[in-house]
């Protein structure tokens, strides 16, 4: 009888930890997905503005400058524009 009670208690504790682990995983996964989505949107907007600036006749070379803009988005584009307007070569 005591062994059965211990088995039930151990099973309940294990079930609790499994449910708690799944809940924590989905909590962190939701936060990570929200952060990842923000990074992806920032990169897409940065690339779109990069090509929009090329249409407006602000001549920025594509190849060396598209990588930081694709990785960091608008902050990288703003940094490169500020450096370009001050005459500092970026690459």
Please describe what this structure looks like.
- By secondary structure, the chain is an all-alpha fold.
- The protein has one domain.
- It has three helices and no strands.
- The N and C termini lie far apart (76 Å).
User: How many domains would you count in the coordinates?
Assistant: 1
Element pattern in H and E: HHH
Instruction: Let me know the average pLDDT.
Output: 87
List how many beta strands DSSP finds: 0
Helicity, as a percent range: over 70%
Overall geometry comes to rod-shaped
Report strand %: under 5%
Cα end-to-end separation:
76 Å
The major β-sheet equals: none
User: Could you list the spans in which at least 5 consecutive residues all have pLDDT below 50?
Assistant: none
Structural class: mainly alpha
SS summary, helix count = 3
Give the radius of gyration: 26 Å
List the helices and strands and how they pair.
Layout: H1 2-55, H2 62-72, H3 74-85
In brief:
By secondary structure, the chain is an all-alpha fold.
Features:
91 residues, mainly alpha
């Amino acid at each position: 009888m005591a062994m059965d009670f211990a088995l039930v208690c151990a099973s309940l504790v294990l079930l609790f930890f499994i449910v708690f682990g799944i809940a924590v995983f989905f909590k962190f996964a939701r936060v990570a997905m929200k952060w990842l989505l923000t990074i992806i949107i920032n990169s897409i907007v940065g690339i779109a503005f990069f090509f929009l600036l090329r249409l407006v006749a602000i001549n920025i070379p594509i190849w060396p400058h598209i990588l930081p803009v694709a990785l960091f988005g608008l902050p990288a584009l703003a940094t490169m524009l500020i450096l370009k307007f001050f005459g500092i070569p970026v690459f």
